Amino acid sequence: MATPAPSLTDIAIAAAIEAAETICTIYHRPIQVISKDDGSPVTEADRAAEDVIIAHLEATGIPMLGEESVAAGIVPTLGDLYFVVDPLDGTKEFIKRNGEFTVNIGLVQHGRPIMGVVLAPTTGEIFVGDEGGAWSGKIVDGVVTERRPIGVAARPRPKIVASRSHGHAALEQLCRTLDVEADLSVGSSLKFCLLARGEAQLYPRFTPTCEWDTAAGQAVLEAAGGAVVTLDGAPMAYGKGSLKFLNPYFVAAASLDLAQQAAAEMRRLLD
């Protein structure tokens, strides 16, 4: 019997694992930091990891929107189906050496993320979401182990997750209004993953992100039963080339109702 061809999810997982190995090699030696035109930092690891991912994904024939490729002026014609890649989400966390950075590989179809892989190189934690649901596991010697389904969890008083490197004055007021029990602080797209496995219920974003920052995490969260909406309450969409792939402010939450409630409050606070 012939071995079945790997799925797009399988290909993305393999790409993320090799990219994480590349990142870890660089992480354990002196890091040279360069500033992009927009002032954000980039390292050798960002570029090396994206090259690894490109090598895996190009065989699919599906276009890829990659953060470092876009920074170099390479923006392919995307169409209705394309990969979205952030080879090192949380470059600031990588530079701080706190371990809170990830490899993000998402797949977008008709403006919505339908598959996502988020891998934390230093811990080996991996989170995956696609049409089959969401799961987490641990990468050990390049192999997925400890695979288990994950899902969102409701709480009478939600826990909120915020960024270590980005904040906003309205966040404190939002916590009071929604009677948040506690707030957790973590970098990169791990925020989506905490929601996806039920450890938090709310992730409001008051500061800029791009599509490659969010596509994979959104896919994981939505596969786990959560929702991501913009401040008008609509699902966050992708393919915003005319806006340089910038996202509007958004709310990720354990349920659509909570996401829309928080979005409405964010609108009020920002008016």
Q: Can you walk through the features of this model?
A:
This protein is of the alpha+beta class. It has helices at residues 8-27, 44-57, 67-71, 91-96, 170-177, 190-196, 211-223, 256-270; strands spanning 33-35, 41-43, 64-66, 81-89, 102-109, 112-119, 125-130, 133-140, 143-149, 159-162, 182-185, 202-205, 227-230, 250-253. The strands form four sheets. The protein has a seven-stranded mixed β-sheet with strand order 3-4-5-6-7-8-9, with helices on both faces. Strands 12-14-13 form a three-stranded antiparallel β-sheet, sandwiched between helices. Strand 5 and strand 6 form a beta hairpin. The longest helix has 20 residues, at 8-27. It is globular.
Describe, in short, the structure shown.
With 271 residues, this protein is an alpha+beta fold.
Record keyword descriptors for this entry.
271 residues, alpha+beta, seven-stranded mixed sheet, three-stranded antiparallel sheet, 32% helix
- For the termini, the CA-CA separation is 62 Å
- Low-pLDDT residue intervals, each spanning 5 or more residues: none
Tally of extended strands? 14
Which sheet architecture does the biggest sheet show? 7 strands, mixed
Helicity, in percent?
A: 25-40%
The H-and-E topology, N to C, reads as HEEHEHEHEEEEEEHEHEHEEH
Q: Which band does the percent of strand residues land in? A: 25-35%
> How many alpha or pi helices?
8
